[in-house]
Write a structure and sequence with these properties.
This protein is mainly alpha-helical and 158 residues long. It contains 7 helices and 3 strands. Helix 3 runs antiparallel to helix 4, helix 4 crosses helix 7 and helix 5 packs antiparallel against helix 6.
Length: 158
């Protein structure tokens, strides 16, 4: 478990209880942190993914970033490859790239696995394809990844 203070600690600490409460899995940046990867921004609330047609009472999902999608519930955290793809789909590019770089750096996924998985998606979308093309496990930290993301998009930090 990652250790930090304040609201970020509560987000990580509540992740497991939210997963049990909602019958889902940790996903997105919450899953990335559980895998030990670097992220650009710590989630204020745990990301939890539940099956597409799952029903959750609104009072039970308070304090959680809830996502509904086709998912296999096998444990507490979503698979590494799915974590990278989910971040590519739902996060801004500059937040998804550090997750992909860190996943590659950790060895949890490899570039060919990412490419093959995206190639099999029915509608991968430009964000996923661009993320796979630009991800690089040689990035030392999330800052380096974010600078690369902004440089490739010709954007400023403002």
């Amino acid at each position: 478990m990652l250790l930090w203070r304040g609201s970020l600690w509560r987000a990580a600490d509540n992740g497991d209880s939210a997963v049990r409460r909602l019958g889902g899995v940790l996903s997105h940046t919450s899953a990335a942190l559980r895998w030990g990867w670097s992220v650009w921004r710590q989630p204020r609330e745990p990301w939890v993914t539940i099956p597409q047609h799952g029903s959750v009472d609104p009072s039970r999902r308070r304090g959680v970033r809830l996502v509904r999608q086709d998912v296999v519930i096998d444990g507490v955290v979503i698979a590494p490859i799915q974590t990278v793809l989910d971040c590519a789909r739902r996060l801004p590019f500059e937040e998804a790239l550090p997750v992909a770089d860190s996943a590659l750096r950790s060895g949890a996924v490899c570039q060919s696995e990412l490419s093959e998985t995206v190639g099999r998606l029915p509608r991968p979308g430009p964000a996923s394809s661009r993320l796979i093309r630009l991800s690089d496990g040689r990035a030392d930290n999330p800052f380096e990844s974010v600078v690369r993301a902004f440089a490739t998009e010709n954007r400023s930090f403002a």
